[in-house]
Write a structure and sequence with these properties.
Elements: H1 5-8, H2 29-61, H3 65-93, H4 95-113, H5 119-143, H6 145-148, H7 153-161, H8 163-195, H9 198-203, H10 212-224, H11 228-236, H12 239-243, H13 246-274, H14 279-299, H15 301-306, H16 311-328, H17 335-368, H18 372-398, H19 402-441
Helix pairs in contact: 2-3, 2-5, 2-7, 2-8, 2-13, 3-4, 3-5, 3-18, 4-5, 4-8, 8-14, 13-14, 13-17, 13-18, 13-19, 14-17, 16-17, 16-19, 18-19
């Protein structure tokens, strides 16, 4: 879950570019930033805390890691897949209503999870209901940033996304303390009370009045989408695969990236428990990941904007480094070295999740980028689902978490290779397009 905010912070609730003329770049917009910040704290914090809960749930239900990991894999898939629907519903019923509904679903899902007595019920309450609630609260709130900010969208998005570090640093250790005191069921009930504060954030949402130009643009867009099949293709961005074939390579690399990142967070604490490290120290590792990710998220943007190297190349290098670290991770048993590996994960994942949206925008262009949002989110959800499910099954088969990190490393290295190939094709295409433009601009002199 962690890179969706970069998408919605640059698009309007209807999937189009924000209206530059009406974006106040301040005023009530700072309360929208606060609402988005609160959402991201709980959004990423709860996702990270699930890894802490799974360790105890595995023992309580007596299930294998493969089956228990279904909670995380289904949850991540639902979160990413429900986000496009949340944005569309926000346009129809209002962002405040959908965000408020999301806060109720999330609170109810965690509360009911505290009373779950079987694994199937827990999958429904925690993986489906809670995840849908998080998505419905998060997506319209961060999407509204694109309405209120244009020239200062970087600053607004940076302040909002800083909630990732706070959530990941704070909630997992708190969850571990709650488990030690009340058990995992009691922890879910207390967490449900905390996420109820999302309803306060929802009440801060105040939509801007649309200008005549914005309304006219929406009318034209609706008239262009006539058939139900066309609507589905447009909604999820499937038409981009045909219009911009190069994006297929980028999305394949992103699937492998999501499979790697989501799997590491899910199985990190399980591996720490397997080698006998105290659960409190294990939950502290999530704080380390959050702090390092926060640092890279706030500092990498200026370098990327210089365009000394392309975002695809930066992401490929980051994935290569991370893949090699994962292959070496099973050899590490010293706690200080595990902390170092978590720092590296925070740095690389924070960089990768931010750059994926820049990569896709570079390939499809500004005009098609809003349409790519649904497809990109589905790509993230699919990658996380496949990665966690595969790693969990291998954990059960080999009875060790070490093999899961070998798989993560292979996912990352393969994704890096795909992105490098995509980068080469992208550069060649740019060269051909540039040469074509120069040829078109060449004017043959007319002899008089």
């Amino acid at each position: 879950m962690d890179g969706i905010e970069e998408v919605f912070a640059t698009t309007d609730l209807d999937g189009s570019a924000p209206d530059q003329a009406t974006a106040p770049d301040g005023g009530w917009g700072w309360f929208i930033v606060l609402a988005a910040h609160i959402n991201i704290v709980f959004f990423d914090g709860i996702i990270a805390s699930i890894g802490v809960l799974l360790v105890r749930m595995k023992v309580y239900f007596g299930e294998g890691a493969g089956k228990i990991s279904l909670i995380a894999s289904i949850g991540l898939f639902v979160i990413h897949s429900a986000a496009p629907f949340a944005v569309v519903l926000s346009k129809r019923y209002g962002a405040r209503m959908i965000a408020w509904m999301g806060s109720i679903l999330c609170t109810a899902g965690l509360f009911m999870s505290g009373f779950a007595t079987d694994f199937t019920t827990l999958c429904i309450t925690l993986a489906v209901v809670t995840s849908t609630g998080l998505s419905f609260s998060f997506a319209p709130t961060t999407a509204m940033l694109g309405q209120y900010f244009h020239n200062r969208i970087g600053l607004a998005n940076g302040l909002a996304s800083a909630g990732y570090g706070i959530g990941v640093m704070g909630l997992p250790p708190l969850t571990q303390q709650l488990i030690d005191i009340y058990g995992w069921q009691g922890a879910c009930i207390v967490l449900s009370g905390l996420v109820a504060n999302l309803s306060v954030a929802a009440n801060l949402l105040r939509p801007l009045e649309k200008t005549k130009d914005t309304k006219a643009r929406e009318k034209v867009k609706k008239n262009c989408i006539l058939h139900s099949c066309d609507r589905v293709c447009w909604f999820f961005g499937f038409h981009i695969l045909r219009l911009k074939p190069l994006v297929n390579g980028a999305l394949l690399g992103i699937v492998l990236l999501a499979a790697s990142n989501g799997t590491f967070v899910t199985f990190l604490l399980q591996r720490v428990a397997d080698i006998g490290i105290d659960a409190t120290k294990g939950s502290f590792l999530m704080t380390v990941i959050g702090a390092s990710s926060l640092v890279i998220r706030l500092t990498h943007g200026w370098f990327v904007d210089l365009r000394i190297v392309t975002p695809i190349f930066i992401n490929a290098c980051s994935l290569t480094v991370w893949g090699l670290f994962n292959i070496l991770f099973p050899l590490v048993t010293d706690y200080s070295m595990i902390v170092f590996f978590c720092v590296m994960f925070g740095l690389t994942s924070g960089l990768q999740n931010s750059l994926t949206f820049v990569i896709v925008k570079d390939i499809v262009g500004t005009e098609l980028y809003p349409s790519a949002v649904g497809l990109l989110l589905l790509t993230f959800g699919t990658g996380s689902f496949i990665g966690i499910l595969t790693a969990g099954s291998l954990y059960d088969f080999y009875d060790t978490a070490d093999v899961t990190f070998y798989v993560i490393g292979i996912f990352a290295l393969t994704g890096s290779l795909v992105l490098i190939i995509t980068e080469c094709i992208y550069r060649r295409q740019q060269t051909v397009d540039s040469k074509s433009v120069k040829d078109d601009e060449t004017v043959t002199p007319v002899m008089l």
